[in-house]
Amino acid sequence: MIVFYVLALVFGFAAAFLAVQAVTPSPSQVYEMRQRAAAKAEAQTIASPLLRILWPILSALVPLARKIGSPDYRTRTAHDIPLAGLPRIMTVDHLIALKLFLAVAAPLFVLLEFQSWILAAVAGLVGYVLPDRMLKEQKHAREQKIVRGMPGAVDMLTLAVEAGMDFIAALQRVLDKGAQGPLREEIATIINDIRLGDSRAGALRAFGNRINVPEVVSFVGVLVQADKLGASIGEVLRSQADRMRTERFQRAEKAGAAASQKLLVPLALFIFPAVLIVIIGPVVLSFIYGGGF
Hints:
By secondary structure, this protein is mainly alpha-helical. Among the domains are: 8-38; 149-260, no CATH class; 265-293, no CATH class. Helices cover 84% and strands 0% of the residues. The protein contains twelve helices and no strands. The chain has helices spanning 2-23, 27-43, 49-65, 71-83, 92-114, 117-162, 167-177, 182-195, 200-210, 214-229, 233-262, 264-289. Helix 6 runs antiparallel to helix 11 (233-262) and helix 7 packs antiparallel against helix 8. The longest helix has 46 residues, at 117-162.
């Protein structure tokens, strides 16, 4: 009888242990649950409502997207995604998943609406290419915002340095007082790189490599050269601020000249014919129905 009780007790403990093990997740399962929860929380921070709605579908297509794309394309796209200002959780796999989704969804929509296989094929091609095109446009727009914000930021940086602040404190002042935008994000990245142990020249070179536009590359090159030669950073910043203001004025003049040329086509097609009709129309009507002038 005692043996029976002992066996029952052992089996009871064993059953309880197995039940607890079955209910309690393993460390790998806990890690996966935390990863999914973190991804879900970050997905809620996506600014685009459409992308937020499509995010579960894109996440489901990620395993398939990992098998698509050349190494060169993946490297280039991974470099462009943060430069376009997309969310941190947006990866190359998610972009390829978006391309696959649009390549399938767009033809189905066109086929249901217009019953045309040719239009459906064109829609599928456009849907597959569209995300890459939008990525490039967003990257270019972000770079232009940085270029437009550089003169004001350099002026503020110059005033802070000439007031006696060191370069890091001056950058922090620009970060605190500057307007929200991509340039402010890049300044924060420069400060973080320096605080994490990178040199000032290294952090500036990384900034120039990220924003590969002539204005930024020239500014970074001059600052790095001044840092290497031990020149006064205040004088260098003052000269760069003057140069950037001049370039901004020249860009505005160039844009104004280009705008006047672009207006010629709509003027010739729409404005001039209407003006001619208003001016010559009554004369022609009086000549036709009035028997002459």
